[in-house]
């Protein structure tokens, strides 16, 4: 076991034994939710149903029911898609990249972050599907052999790369997440008293018996999947950024897009993790495991990635001027001062200025402030995509084609609906799944818990 | 304490001497058979006039021959290889000056001023060669020493435990910053004085719309923004560069250079000073100060590495722009710095220093090298793919010259910087062998020297690139200088920060 210096803060606080961890993590599953949970769940279901209604209306009638026009052929649909994909980046970053960096604090948050990732990618995946118009031929996005002659997908299109990137990301994340869940499901199975529950968790835990051989296979598998996940953290948003950057639209075509989108995705992903976990740790009593130290660490990541995004914004702005290309210069001037100036400044305030407050240690460790800031970042990152997409499109090369975008009730309904759907999935998860990777967390009890550190002194 | 032995010193000094000799040789051969701009102008002008009158005579003859229906003239003119305008004139110029002009430039020349420019350009490029190789080696090692300092600061702000035994090494590397900085300032000032042509935009002639026709044949032509008597359009006027003058002008450029260098040197000095204080006093006071200073320095470096790369490297290809360039070039310098830190650590290990550093630390070096090599490839590919895909003339010229004339170097760089670490230190066991890590690190360092070469040379020496005695000699000389500075700095202080609060984590590092 590796040595840990005294100056490192404990990651598990309170007097906790191995058994206490099992108890704490099984409790939300073994007890019934309170009325607040039901209220939130009910609201989310309603939002989800409204969203589903709007989706069916869109599919039945056609994408004309959205607020799109000839100039702005992409708006809320792709904005929401990129927003959700971005949010779905924190989980793999925590599980794979922080694993590589040997960050022990990832252990209490990785399970929920990965769950959130998967649920967010589900929402993201909805948008390209409904955007197709004819969803029943959706399988045409795959390069399938067919009998229509030389009819084939366009391998040069970043939209096709998206299909591969996101489906790979989703499947690897899902398998990685599930791999980690197996020993924890087995714990729930072994504790279960109710026969139905016992049956369900028996199936879910794949006959896990906790033998040395099982553990060895599990560890090897986890390492392989972590290795696969690491490049995926970068590749997904890189390819999403190429949807825009390979074009020649001023404001879209810029080389910084791939790494800057990745940084933005991690930024928004961590903000969503904060939003969810700050509530969850309170509701299911996980304050001993998701401590202020964890919150501070996530805030530092938000601050760093927010600053990277800020540098990228300013780089783009400067290069637009430096390039001497009139169209580039206009595109950026128009972003900041044109009819959509408010969305640009909303983005700047939420994404660049407000995370700088995290330099102050007392604010980093303030739960209420962190929660408010995480909401700010979520809003800011939605506006970032809106700025990139709508403001770049609404001024065409031909002034006669200049136009504005206004969302219809269907646009709004689908967006609200995905938030509802996401919340439904997360709320169900938080009462039926072990929300902390207990098997892994137990491995650091002897090195990083409060009790152990005090004993050592 | 590390002892900088006499033998090592002698090797370093020999390398430096070799560097100086090659550079001096480079300067001498570059200035041999040189012609001044004015000489070229006068000679070319004369030849142009002769050519014009010949051509007139020739055209008259042709029109006569058409009348007399004599076909022999046609055959004669066919042998004169008129594949582009002024082909025969250029042949004469090449014979007279003993030079070989660029085909593309010859083809695109229209009129006297262009022909003069093309000819002068050849001699500028010839003169430029030793300057470019000095600039290249200097910026490479300057930025490596900065990146090593960033590496050190990252260890502090991320509170890394594993690397504590190694922290004196990046500190010693950063002691090269002042020397690299002084040479950098020297190169910028000499470029502003037109001793060499590294920064094309420093030529005042580019930013004026008009020129006094009579003064063109003198050494200092009179340029002006206003049209007046005797003025003609300035054929050198460059609208794009003129648009950039509020950023790219010599005073502001020098101020920026001073700010970057001063900021980096102060950070390097203070980080070293604090760590030495910590050695004596112990406690957390100096550790916490270093943490704060590292955070401030990282912010400063995050901005200045980008702007520095735009100023010092991207502005060589003045028309071209790429938002990713700052991050891409820093990726190159950062992975090179990781390689240098690994090489020095392994060198110390081979000389029986640092007994606590073992294969676990090598493993982490291997991961650093592998991860940042992949990151470099990622930024390289992102920039390349997007520019290739969009294929807009403003941007794509950058890669056109590189892929036409430098493709062999690009391929070598990609093999050394990507394929090499991917294959050789992917495996866990390989990462833990210090010989293997050393081998890969040296290849990576060479690969990134080539990568930086491809960033700098096309904009300064164009298609006339060489990797000969001058380039290799200067590089070896710089290795000698850099090693001398770093090792002598390392030998002056204890090799390990003994009061670092995380030192036991590094001692018991196990993965």
Give a summary of the structure in a few sentences:
The complex is a heterodimer of chains A (457) and B (511). Chain A has 457 residues and is mainly alpha-helical.
Protein described:
The complex is a heterodimer of chains A (457) and B (511). With 457 residues, chain A is mainly α. Chain A has one domain (18-134, 153-456). Chain A has helices at 18-30, 35-61, 76-87, 90-100, 110-131, 158-191, 195-204, 212-245, 257-283, 292-323, 326-337, 341-353, 361-364, 367-394, 409-432, 438-441, 445-448, 450-456. The model of chain A has no long low-confidence stretch (mean pLDDT 90). Chain B has helices at residues 6-31, 37-68, 72-78, 87-97, 103-107, 112-157, 168-173, 177-192, 239-243, 250-281, 285-312, 325-350, 359-390, 393-405, 407-424, 428-431, 434-460, 469-491, 503-507; strands at 210-212, 223-224, 231-233. Chain B has two domains: 6-33 and 129-198 and 241-495, no CATH class; 37-97, no CATH class. The two termini of chain B are 28 Å apart. Chain A binds chain B through residues 2-8, 100-102, 231, 234, 238, 242, 245-248, 253-259, 307-308, 311-312, 315-316, 319, 322-325, and chain B through 158-159, 161, 239-240, 243-244, 247, 284, 299, 302-303, 306, 310, 319, 321-327, 367, 371, 374, 378-379, 382-383, 385-387, 389-390, 392, 394, 501-502, 504-505, 507-511.
Which descriptors would you attach to this protein?
heterodimer; A: 457 residues; mainly alpha; 18 helices; 70% helix; 0% strand; B: 511 residues; 3 strands; elongated
Extended strand count of chain B: 3
Radius of gyration of chain B: 27 Å
How many discrete domains of chain B? 2
Helical run tally of chain B: 19
Largest sheet entry of chain B: 3 strands, antiparallel
Low-confidence stretches of chain B at least 5 residues in length (pLDDT < 50)? 71-80
Distance linking N and C termini of chain A: 18 Å
Helix proportion of chain A:
55-70%
The end-to-end span of chain B amounts to 28 Å
Beta-strand portion of chain A reads under 5%
Largest interface chains and counts: A-B, 36 and 45 residues
Structural class of chain B: mainly alpha
